[in-house]
Amino acid sequence: DGSDGQGVYYATRPSPFSEFDNPQFVPITRGRDHRASPSVSVKGLLVYAVPEKAAIWGASRGGPLSPFDDKRPLASSRKTTPRWTAAQVLGGGLHLFWVESVGESANCFHASRSEVEKAFGPAEAFELPGTRPCLSADGLRQYTFDGKTLVRWRRSSLRGRFASDDTVAELELPDYVDDPLARQFAVSDDERWMVYCEAPGDGARLLIVRLHERPHRGILVVGVPAPPRPVVAKVDKKKLKPRTPAAKLVIDPKAVAKTTKDEPKPAPKPVEIPELPLKAYRSAWYDLLAKRDYTGAAKHLATARKDQKLTDSSRQLEWDSDELLLIQAFWKDARRVVAAMKPDDPVRIGSVRLKFVKFENDVLVVQGKAKPIEKPLAMMAASDLVGLVEPTLDADDSRGRLRLGVFLYRDLKGRGTSAIRRLRRAGEAGAEFLDRRGLRLLAEARAEIARGRPERALSMLATIEKSHAKTSAAKRLPAVWEQLYSLEKWSQQGSRRWQIKGVAWRAAPGRAAGSLVVSPHEMKRFELSLEWKTEGETGQGGVFFRYGGTGNPVGGSLKLQLSSDAGVAADQFSTGALFGVAPPSANLAKPTGEWNSLKLRVDGDAVKVEINGQQVLMTTVADPDLPAVGHVALDGIAGGITYRRVLLVPLASR
Known about the structure:
alpha+beta; Jelly Rolls; 7-stranded antiparallel sheet; Neuraminidase; globular; 32 strands; 654 residues; 5-stranded antiparallel sheet
C-alpha cells in the first residue's frame, strides 16, 4: 500500500553494484483486496495472489522498459471458503505454484502449461515444506526460514517429493516476523545472499544478509595468488643521450618474392538482402497504430496504395483501411460514452473506482481521494478505454464489439488474449479478422518465395501450422509447400524421362547417361534439404555441387553419395560420403523403399552432412582444380532413386 494506491510495486537497478531506483507502481494491479507474494518470470510475467478471492492474476508487458498493460486471471477457486495466501511462477511462466488455506490447514498446488498464451492445466496437490513457495529457478529446491535457521529442501523433479537436505545458514534476525501473505524472503541461486523484509506493516525495511563468504552452490572459482612482478623503472626522456640511427636497410625484391606466401582471403561480407516491401510497410503500420498516430497511419496507407512494389498487396491494404475506420469509430464510441456521463457516475481507472466530474477538451476529469485527477482520453490505457465502452454495448451489438476488439488488438500489437476473446464475441466479422492474421503471414511467405528467398518463408509457414491451424490460411498451405518444393525452375539434362508426381521426382531403375536435374543458379554457400528413397539393390544417386552446369559432372564437381546400402560399413563410397573424398562417421541409410532425409550445408570449403537427423560428416574441401562456385544437381544417372521435398536456400552470404 503506497502513495499511488494498493497493489504491486517493483524496483530495478542497472547492476548488482548499484542502488535500486524508486519503487514503481503497476497500475493494473490496483484493487481494494490485498495483493500477496508477487513474483516475476524471466520473460516478464508478473504473478500475484488475491487471498480473499482465492485467485491468482498475471500481468505482462512487451519488454523490460515497457509498462505492464495486459492483465489476465491465471487460476481461481470455485469455492468461497479457501484463501490463496501465496504464489510463485517459474519456468518462463509455464509453471505455477500456490498455497491454499482453509481454516488451520493448508495445501499446496502446482499447475503447468505448454505455452505462455495457453491456459494452465488442472492443478495437482503436492507437499511443500514451509508456509509459502520459495523455490529456486529450476523448481528443484525449496527454502524455509523460521527467523533463525534457513533450510534447503530438495527433489529430483518438478513432480517429485521434497526431502530435507541441509541447513544453509544459522542467523540471528530479531526484527524478522513471519508474514504468510508476503514474499518475505528470497535466496540467491548460489546461496550466498538472502533478501528479506523485517515484518508486516508500514515502514518495514527490505534488507540483504550475506550467508556465506563464497558461493555456496554452483561452480566455485579457485586459484592461487599470482607471483609479484618486478616494477619497470621509469625513464626520464630528457636525460636520454641521442643515438646514431642505424644504416638504411636495403631489401632485395627478388629475395622477398621467394619467401612471401599468399595471405588468407578475407571472409566474404554478408549480402544485405533488402527487406520485403510488404513487411517494411506492415512493420511501420503496426507501430503507428500502437502509438495511436492515426493521422500518420492514414498517410502511410495512402503512400502504400501508390507504391508499385505493393500492387500485389492491394487486398491487404483494403483490410488495413477497414481496420483504421473501425479504430477511429471506436474512439468516437469512447468520446460519446464519456460525454454522456453525469457527475458522480462511477469511472474505473485501473482497479480503482472513481467518480466522474467532467469531460472537456478531450480530457476526462475524475475525483480522486484528495483532489480531481485529469486523464487525457488519448493517453488512457487500452484496458481503461475498453472498460468505459464495453458496458454500454448491447448483447447483440457485434459491430460495436468488433470496433472494440480491433482497437484493442492493434493497440497492444496483438499481445495477450484479451482482444482475441472479445473478437470471438464479435460475430462473423470478428472471426474474419482473426482468420486474416494467418492470411497476412501467408502473403508475406509467398512474396518471399516469389523473390527467391524461401528460407525467410519457412518460419512464417511454421507459425501458420502451429498458431493458425484451423484457419483458411492453413487450408492453403499444401499448395504453398508444393510451390516451395517445386523444381519447375530447375533444368533437366540427359536422356532420362523423370516420373514427376507432385513434388516427387523418380528416376526409374536403369542407367541413363548424363541424367541430372540442375539448379537454376550457381551457389557457393547454401543449405539443401530433401527426402529420398531407393529401389532395388543397385538403386543410387546423390547430390552434385560446384557443378559447372553442363557436361559430365564426374571429376569436375563434388558429390554427396546416396545408395541402397543399409547395413553396409561406412566408407568413401557409402551413403553420406563425399564420394571418393571423405567417408561418413556412420552409414545411417534406411532399408530400400523407406524414406530418408538429407541436409547438406556448404559454406565455402566447409561441408556438413546430416542423414536422418544425425550429423555424419563435417569436413573441409579445398581443391584448386574445382570451381569455388557452381550449380547443385540431383543425380539420376544410375536410377532407382526418388527425390521429394527438395529445398535449396542460400546462406547469409553467397
